[in-house]
Amino acid sequence: MSTENSAMKTIETAEELLAHALALETEAAERYEEIADNLEVHNNPEVAGLFRQLAQYGRKHAAEVEELSKDMELPHIAPWDFKWGTETGESPEAPPIEDIHYMMTPFQALKVAHSVETQAQQFYASVASSTPDKRTKEIAAEFAEEEQGHVDLLVEWLKKYPEPEKGWDYDPDPPMMHE
């Protein structure tokens, strides 16, 4: 296992960047689907639908990365060797499970999505500014710009939903956790 701080590593090649991008988008889509499944179980279909829509976007972006890299041989990167630069070592675009609540509102779901899209944008911008390779720099800058578009879109979506009032998560009969 790598003991170096992932924030100190530089992505050197377009292939390495695309391997990171594919993992980033795939992991985000899988996490969004997992969250949607859990929210459906807890009868929160509106927010589950938002997370399913976000998962669709992730799968679409993963397909775009696959298309972009179809004539390349992407390296296999062990999970602990990704150069995300995140404290947890997880993909910057995968929503943390601890940020999810079964009673969350659309506003809160969009705040979570805004946070991870911002992290993804910062990841790509960091790669663009730190890589010595011109092609990698171009791809990373393009991906950073695309992620910024997602961030901007989520800001617009957030305006459509009210911020929840204090006590939004009160449940007099919360679900039981079986041991």
Distance between the termini: 32 Å
**For this structure, what is the CATH class?**
Mainly Alpha
Helix content: 55-70%
CATH architecture: Up-down Bundle
Radius of gyration (Å)? 18 Å
Provide the β-strand percentage band.
under 5%
Number of strands: 0
CATH topology title: Ferritin
The main sheet comes to:
none
The secondary structure category is mainly alpha
- Would you list the SSEs in sequence order as H and E? HHHH
Residue-averaged pLDDT, rounded? 90
Unreliable stretches (pLDDT < 50, length at least 5) are: 1-8
Number of helical segments with 4 or more residues: 4
Morphology call? elongated
CATH superfamily: Ferritin, core subunit, four-helix bundle
How many structural domains does the protein architecture include?
A: 1
Q: Please, could you describe this protein's structure?
A:
- With 179 residues, this protein is mostly helical.
- The chain has a single domain, classed as Ferritin, core subunit, four-helix bundle (Ferritin, Up-down Bundle).
- Helix content is 57%, strand content 0%.
- The relative contact order is 0.16.
